[in-house]
Amino acid sequence: MCFVREVTVGTRSETRDRIVRAATDLLAEGGRTAVSTRAVAAAAGVQAPTIYRQFGDMGGLLREVASFGFSTYLRDKTMRQRDDDPVQDLRRGWDAHVGFGLANPALYSLMYGEPRPGASSPAVVAAADVLAGLIRRIAEAGRLRVGEERAAHLVHAAGSGTTLALIALPEGRRDPMLSDMAREAVIAAITTDAPAPATPGPVGAAVALRAVLPQTSALTTRERALLQEWLDRIAGA
User: Fold this and answer.
1) Mapping DSSP to helix (H, G, I), strand (E, B) and coil, where does residue 144 land?
2) Residue 142 gets which letter from DSSP?
3) Closest by alpha carbon to 195, among 186, 185, 208?
4) What is the pTM of this model?
5) What is the mean pLDDT of the chain?
6) N- or C-end of the chain: fewer Cβ atoms within 10 A?
7) What pLDDT, on the 0 to 100 scale, is given for residue 234?
8) Cβ atoms within 10 A of the Cβ of 36, count?
9) What is d(CA 8, CA 13) in angstroms, rounded to the nearest whole number?
10) Largest pairwise CA distance in the chain
């Protein structure tokens, strides 16, 4: 029987951070099955009960690992320079997302492979906010042909589905064009080729006005909410 001496030097946050980093390394090296209580405790230099005191259970630890492992990707994604063309920005975001998944298959599968309604990790929520920002820029440019929420859901579904499908294939069998074809199909479905004309259709006009509505101060709060409801109804028609 092996006993692990718990390292008591350092603050509670340092202990928590050490456990998360140990679990992250184990996940990258051996996949989900490698992240056991015993293995994490040994790698972090703590006793098993410490893990449960810090995270509640292994599920709590794995959610923290997902947030920690995804933070670098989010930082790079939010800090990179914007493209003048918002649609091209969306392309770059898609490619970065798929690239992250293929480079970190165990982490990506942990984040997106077992979806639970209403229970997304903070990292996934933050990534969704970044995507919403990309979609908003396209709407503000008058190039979105569907509502923002529908567009974001479609991009997310297609992007995560494509990434998981590629992860499931042996590297030698992955078609490098699959992601590009999926990306362009989605972009064609939600965007126009050029900014909306002076007299766009009702859906395009509603989407564009909905995107810039927060910038106006001519309406009261109640008026803005009512107009937003009308525009959402038109855009979703």
Assistant:
1) strand
2) T
3) 208
4) 0.70
5) 81
6) N
7) 74
8) 15
9) 12
10) 77
DSSP state letter for 143: -
Give the residues across from 144 on adjacent strands. 191
Residues in the chain: 237
Are the C-beta atoms of residues 210 and 229 closer than 8 Å to each other?
no
Contact (Cβ atoms closer than 8 angstroms) between residue 105 and residue 167: yes
Closest CA to 147 of 227, 233, 216: 233
How many angstroms from the chain centroid is the CA of residue 100? 11
What letter represents residue 178's amino acid?
Answer: L
Confidence at residue 168, expressed as pLDDT on a 0 to 100 scale: 93
Q: Cα(234)–Cα(45) distance, rounded to whole angstroms?
A: 58
Q: Which amino acid is at 129?
A: D
Specify the pLDDT at position 102.
93
Residues 110/32, Cβ–Cβ less than 8 Å: yes
Map out the domains of the chain with their CATH numbers. 1-56 (1.10.10.60), 62-197 (1.10.357.10)
Tell the burial category of 34 from Cβ atoms under 10 Å away from its Cβ (0-12, 13-18, 19+). middle
For 141-178, write each residue's pLDDT tens digit.
Answer: 889 888 889 999 999 999 999 999 999 999 889 998 99
Q: 199: pLDDT confidence band, cut at 50, 70 and 90?
A: very low
Other beta carbons within 10 Å of 108: 23
